Amino acid sequence: MLKYILIGYGQRGRFYADCLRKLNRAEPAAVCDARQCKLDLAKRNLGLRDGQLYRDADALFAAGKIADLAIIASMDCAHYAQAVKALQLGYHLLLEKPIAQTERQCREIAALAKKLGRKVYVCHVLRYAPIYTSIKEMLAGGTFGDVVTITQTEHVGWWHQAHSYVRGNWRRSEESSPMIVAKCCHDLDLFAWLIGKKCDKVSSFGSLYYYNREHAPEGSGDYCYNCKLKDTCVYNCLNFYTKYPDFAFASGQYLGDGQDKQAIAECFSQESNPYARCVFKCDNDVVDHQVVNMLFEGGVTAQLTMTAFCEGGIRTIRIHATKGFIEASMLDNVIRYEIYGQEPQELHVAVGETFGGHGGGDEKLVEDVVNDLEGGRDSLCLTSIDRSVMSHLMGFAAEQSRVRGGKAVKIR
């Protein structure tokens, strides 16, 4: 049976382990996480022994190559060093996005994998989501002619922005990645995949517009628990985390019973908890809205809007082609399309039972990785690093353009 090591037993790492356990075609050799509470959870969930649990990735690597696959689901800032070490030891990688924090690091990981003959699968799970695979098949049939332009909106959502990009681990570019890379390399990857051509240049605008002290309500406190406006504020963390205990757990601050609302309230009433802060008085610096304009080879254009100011949790796309158009939303998994001169049509995409996000793409990615590593089974390898690195180059170029006031940046 395929064996794997897992670095980072947070929300994403735990999910990949659950996917593999559900498949029953791979078993964990070790789990690494800096937090003992996470290791205790991994021990219970995965049936591991103490000797299979590591607090430090270097200590795990010092044990040598003990499995076939290394799943790297740690924080963005750790990806580069851990990916390089794992590749050098002989591991294939399932690498959570973003690949790394800089363009240079991304290119180096790709080059090293090629040199050593290792496989690196990037977690661009949307390529496996049934709604996007259906769109890809529709375009490949030729009925819609040539794709001329694509527009997509990433509806980040006010609550997701507050949780992850204002209070959470991805709030500062230097500690994680620019938000357009950390959140939207998925979306940029879809453009490259659906268009099937190299992106030549990008321009971008965006800023941190709202989640700052300038917009703090008069009389608001630094922490929700002692704020006199908490009963009327939509960003009151006490209300949010007691209502959605999965997010309380995902914060890494609370590890108790998800039904114990009193315990959650107590956890988020402590000033040592960064998720207890007022969203207008944090140390965040990433954008809360950004647009990216892209020019692909042959004159094909694309445009991405990323915004916090919406309901959140969905993506919408519209594809304009020479013979027809396609539009879809992950909210209802319905593709609406029209061949010019004909009646509009709808295609209801079957997602099936899924316990992850991204429209069922997560499980399908994990299964495809196992298929490929086992050999002898059909596999698509849609997110190999050589295919996935372009999205990161686009994202880093977009951030350069944004910082330079929208000046177009050519992708090398």
Describe the secondary-structure layout.
Layout: E1 2-7, H1 11-23, E2 26-32, H2 36-46, E3 53-54, H3 57-62, E4 69-72, H4 76-89, E5 92-95, H5 103-116, E6 120-122, H6 130-140, E7 147-155, H7 158-166, H8 179-182, H9 185-195, E8 199-207, H10 237-243, H11 245-250, H12 261-267, E9 289-296, E10 301-307, E11 314-321, E12 324-329, E13 334-339, E14 345-348, H13 361-374, H14 385-403, E15 409-410
Parallel strand pairs: 1-2, 1-4, 2-3, 4-5, 5-6, 7-10
Antiparallel strand pairs: 7-11, 8-9, 8-15, 9-10, 11-12, 12-13, 13-14
Helix pairs in contact: 1-13, 4-5, 5-14, 9-14, 10-12
Description of the molecule:
- The structure is a single chain.
- This protein has 412 residues and is α/β, with parallel strands linked by helices.
- It folds into 3 domains: 2-122, NAD(P)-binding Rossmann-like Domain (Rossmann fold); 126-211 and 284-357 and 381-410, Dihydrodipicolinate Reductase, domain 2; 213-276, no CATH class.
- It has 14 helices and 15 strands.
- It has helices at 11-23, 36-46, 57-62, 76-89, 103-116, 130-140, 158-166, 179-182, 185-195, 237-243, 245-250, 261-267, 361-374, 385-403, and strands at residues 2-7, 26-32, 53-54, 69-72, 92-95, 120-122, 147-155, 199-207, 289-296, 301-307, 314-321, 324-329, 334-339, 345-348, 409-410.
- The strands form 2 sheets. A 9-stranded mixed sheet has the order 14-13-12-11-7-10-9-8-15, covered by helices on one side.
- β1, α1 and β2 (26-32) form a beta-alpha-beta unit.
